[in-house]
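Regression test case RT-17, inverse folding.

Input:
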């Protein structure tokens, strides 16, 4: 298969559980809004855990001698059935890939191989890609260079009408602004910006300046915003963010994956972990890129 066909693509791990199919709806709905539907591809990935074989892109590629041939064929038939149903709802190109190995690593490897622009995945699995919650979801986020949307149980509905964007004092924090602009324009969203109510006067002034800069950036692009700061109680800003987001009827929370308050940990930060593991609202995680230095207009 000519992989250049997938350059403008989204990868969706599918284990045929309800949450993975909800994730597929999210991915297809986003792709469906693209101005370039002809080249917009949603790739369904099924990982057969414990097996070891090269990626299979078509049922005709299955080698009869492969001990996993029957499992591969069964997976492809189910994937094709899912694709046929999705085609009835979305004007998007769908592909499938079946591969053997460790799910989190294979998801990241395939995403890189097809140059996926994003991964959209469910957080609970029942077979195949098992238990994509907690450490497995965290592992996918750590291994993947592209943004990852984690979906637990919330259907796409009318799209991401209310987006929550936590802002801190790190340079990396601003890198998620541009991708939020793209999503907000597609869904005509309101972006709700939230920061920490710093007690230190100097830090409070910097936080206010950061928030004002982000608000101005969105407003210049015709995107509605609200802005607030929350007082950090009991040292857990993540839980406060989630409670506040629910009060805003949020459809999406956008965070940096390697971020905790004002410091970049260069590991999967505890703030991000709590948001991903606790949120019933879809979460978009973005890995910092040192080359960008927080510049809004560059992804």
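Golden output:
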């Amino acid at each position: 298969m000519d992989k250049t066909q997938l350059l403008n693509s989204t990868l969706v791990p599918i284990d045929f559980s309800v949450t993975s199919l909800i994730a597929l709806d999210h991915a297809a709905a986003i792709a469906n809004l693209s101005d370039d539907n002809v080249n917009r591809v949603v790739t369904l990935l099924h990982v057969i855990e414990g097996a070891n074989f090269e990626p299979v892109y078509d049922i005709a590629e299955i080698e009869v001698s492969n001990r996993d041939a029957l499992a591969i064929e069964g997976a492809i038939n189910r994937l094709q059935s899912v694709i046929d149903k999705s085609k009835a709802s979305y004007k998007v190109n769908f592909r499938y890939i079946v591969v053997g190995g460790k799910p989190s690593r294979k998801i990241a490897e395939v995403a890189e191989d097809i140059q996926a622009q994003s991964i959209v995945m469910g957080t609970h699995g029942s077979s195949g890609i098992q238990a994509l919650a907690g450490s497995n979801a965290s592992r996918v986020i750590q291994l993947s260079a592209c943004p990852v949307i984690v979906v637990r149980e919330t259907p796409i509905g009318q799209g991401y009408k209310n987006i929550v964007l936590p802002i801190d004092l790190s340079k990396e924090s601003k890198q998620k602004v541009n991708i939020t602009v793209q999503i907000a324009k597609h869904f005509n969203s309101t972006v709700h910006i939230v920061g920490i109510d710093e007690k230190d006067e100097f830090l409070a002034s910097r936080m206010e300046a950061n928030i004002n800069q982000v608000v101005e950036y969105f407003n210049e692009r015709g995107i509605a915003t609200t802005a607030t700061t929350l007082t950090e109680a009991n040292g857990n800003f993540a839980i406060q963010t989630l409670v506040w987001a629910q009060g805003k009827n949020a459809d999406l929370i956008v965070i940096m994956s390697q971020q905790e308050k004002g410091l970049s940990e260069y590991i999967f930060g505890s703030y991000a972990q709590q948001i991903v593991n606790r949120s019933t609202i879809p979460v978009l995680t973005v890995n910092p890129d040192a080359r960008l230095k927080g510049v809004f207009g560059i992804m």
